[in-house]
């Protein structure tokens, strides 16, 4: 049986304005795929379960997440910070390298995501636009 981990997630609404929302996802199996993680983010409102495993967060019904973040279609993920390692100087995420698409069958474990590894989720098109023309307005 795989270990359950907590994955702190930063939802990035805008790279230009650095608009983010932070929320930890608990009880995620380390053997879960990236696709499973995004299913939980996008379809949480359709999978309401009142067991301990699912009570930690259902993004679509969470009162902690502001509405503009709930309605955005996240389709990419990138590791922000691995637990117990040094953090980069980037305010949001490192714009170098390619993000992982939401339909990936890679497991969290194969990506090096362990307990307390911070990840960022965002729209791939916004990421590519920011990488090609970095502009920050705050």
TrEMBL record:
InterPro entries: UPF0538
Pfam families xref list: DUF2340
Top-level lineage group: Eukaryota
Alphabetical list of PANTHER family matching this protein: UPF0538 FAMILY MEMBER, UPF0538 PROTEIN C2ORF76
Similarity comment text for this entry: Belongs to the UPF0538 family.
Name of the protein in question: UPF0538 protein C2orf76-like protein
Species of provenance: Schistosoma haematobium (Blood fluke)
